[in-house]
């Protein structure tokens, strides 16, 4: 039987909902409307004169080879970070879910990296891999391996993928560990009695039960790589060398803040916002079907 909470008047429900509505309007709806209004305008560098241009900013973006390259680079970056971070979180969760001595200590240590700020994570890897002073880069140089993310675009791209994935592993670890602990012990025992052991038992019994968690993390990690990795990338490479680490969110900042192309930057923001709405809609529809 469904239970509902009934309020005697309209004032209390409005008061309870008002803070969330205010936050949504102030930090999402108003900025979204401002970005959309600027995306259909051409603004001078000082922001004094504006001209309505319709969809010209969007057409210019879609016809720009630079924007197309940034889009492909973002897709590759999101795919690499998502796969590495989710695989790492799943492997660590499987090991941490075993009955070993001191498992609570291991779990806490594995969660710690998520608390590190993205800019601080970049600084840590600078001390490790900076071409002149990095501890690991000097060791690689002694082995004859030339690793220089400051001048080599491939090295820089690989490094930001590594750092972004390392930063997100802890998040995936938490959810996968919770998912593994929610698998009924009776199911595991029944599969074991039927002869399913090791990786075969994981692939045929446990992994299907983790499907809702996996899809949820797939969306969250994609959004993280596309948006939240900005501070990490900008603090480490600034989008360089050249444009080798310039993802879409970095390009939005470069075009809007540095190059003062407000209309083009706003159009890019609208496209990014549309992508995140599509991903979120797919997530809610898929998880809703899985729940039923």
Automatic annotation (TrEMBL):
Oligomeric and partner information: The complex is composed of two ATP-binding proteins (UgpC), two transmembrane proteins (UgpA and UgpE) and a solute-binding protein (UgpB).
SUPFAM superfamilies assigned to the protein according to its UniProt record, in alphabetical order: MetI-like
Keyword Magnesium appears in the UniProt entry: no
Alphabetic keyword roster: Cell inner membrane, Cell membrane, Membrane, Transmembrane, Transmembrane helix, Transport
Name of the gene this protein is made from: ugpA
GO cellular component: plasma membrane
UniProt family annotation: Belongs to the binding-protein-dependent transport system permease family.
Function: Part of the ABC transporter complex UgpBAEC involved in sn-glycerol-3-phosphate (G3P) import. Probably responsible for the translocation of the substrate across the membrane.
PROSITE patterns: ABC_TM1
InterPro entries: MetI-like (IPR000515), MetI-like_sf (IPR035906), UgpAE/MalFG_permease (IPR050809)
Chief location category: membrane
BP-aspect Gene Ontology terms: transmembrane transport
Domain of life of the native organism: Bacteria
CDD domains: TM_PBP2 (cd06261)
Protein name: sn-glycerol-3-phosphate transport system permease protein UgpA
Compartment list: Cell inner membrane; Cell membrane
One Pfam family recorded for the sequence: BPD_transp_1
Membrane topology per record: Multi-pass membrane protein
Transmembrane segments: 12-33, 70-96, 108-129, 205-227, 266-286
Originating organism: Acidiphilium multivorum (strain DSM 11245 / JCM 8867 / NBRC 100883 / AIU 301)
């Amino acid at each position: 039987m469904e239970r509902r909470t009934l309020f005697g008047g309209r004032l209390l429900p409005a008061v309870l909902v008002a803070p969330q509505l205010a936050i949504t309007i102030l930090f999402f709806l108003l900025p979204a409307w401002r970005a959309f209004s600027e995306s259909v305008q051409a603004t001078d560098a000082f922001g004094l004169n504006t001209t309505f241009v319709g969809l010209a900013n969007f057409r210019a973006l879609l016809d720009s080879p630079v924007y197309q390259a940034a889009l492909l680079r973002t897709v590759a970056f999101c795919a690499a970070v998502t796969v590495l971070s989710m695989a790492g979180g799943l492997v660590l969760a499987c090991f941490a879910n075993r009955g070993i001595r001191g498992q609570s200590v291991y779990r806490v240590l594995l969660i710690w990296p998520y608390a590190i700020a993205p800019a601080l994570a970049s600084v840590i890897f600078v001390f490790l891999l900076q071409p002149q002073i990095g501890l690991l880069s000097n060791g690689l140089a002694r082995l004859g391996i030339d690793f220089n993310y400051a001048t080599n675009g491939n090295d820089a791209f690989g490094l930001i993928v590594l750092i972004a994935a390392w930063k997100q592993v802890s998040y995936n670890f938490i959810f996968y560990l919770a998912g593994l602990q929610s698998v009924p012990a009776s199911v595991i025992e029944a599969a074991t009695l039927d002869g399913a052991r090791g990786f075969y038992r994981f692939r045929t019994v446990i992994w299907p039960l983790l499907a809702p968690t996996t899809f949820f993390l797939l969306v969250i990690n994609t959004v993280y790589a596309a948006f939240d990795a900005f501070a990490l990338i900008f603090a480490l490479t600034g989008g360089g060398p050249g444009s080798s680490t310039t993802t879409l969110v970095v390009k939005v900042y470069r075009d809007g803040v540095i190059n003062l192309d407000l209309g083009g930057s706003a159009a890019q923001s609208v496209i990014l916002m549309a992508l995140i709405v599509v991903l979120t809609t797919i997530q809610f529809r898929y998880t809703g079907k899985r729940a039923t």
